[in-house]
Amino acid sequence: MEEGGKITITPELLDHLCELAKLKLTESEKKAFLRDLNRILEYFSVIDEVEVGDVEPAFHVLGLSNVMREDEVSEERLAQEEALANAPHKEEGYIKAPRMV
């Protein structure tokens, strides 16, 4: 919970999170998780103190613009037998898949 602008994980909150995640932790594991999660949250508060007002927002750290290649139609075709060779289930020359509702 939040204490004076600082977020901490309480034992009650950890129990609730464990219940939601269907985790069964021993008491020693709970103590370790509490310590570790609160240290992580403390580190986020350190990160929050970094001055970023003059930093331009970036969507990708490498500055890549377009990493997609153009689609090209190949004249080389697979024979139907080759295309179906690794299909686990086939029926009348098609790949048979489970029915989706």
Question: How would you describe what is shown here?
Answer:
- By secondary structure, the protein is mainly alpha-helical.
- It has a domain at 2-48: Histone, subunit A, CATH 1.10.20.
- Helices cover 37% and strands 8% of the residues.
- It has 3 helices and 4 strands.
- The protein has helices at residues 11-20, 27-48, 80-84; strands at 2-3, 6-7, 90-91, 94-95.
- The strands form 2 sheets. Strands 1-2 form a two-stranded antiparallel ribbon. A two-stranded antiparallel ribbon has the order 3-4.
Overview features:
single chain, 101 residues, mainly alpha, Histone, subunit A, two-stranded antiparallel sheet, two-stranded antiparallel ribbon, 3 helices, 8% strand
Short overview:
The protein has 101 residues and is mostly helical. It has helices at residues 11-20, 27-48, 80-84; strands at residues 2-3, 6-7, 90-91, 94-95. The strands form two sheets. Strands 1-2 form a two-stranded antiparallel ribbon. A two-stranded antiparallel sheet has the order 3-4.
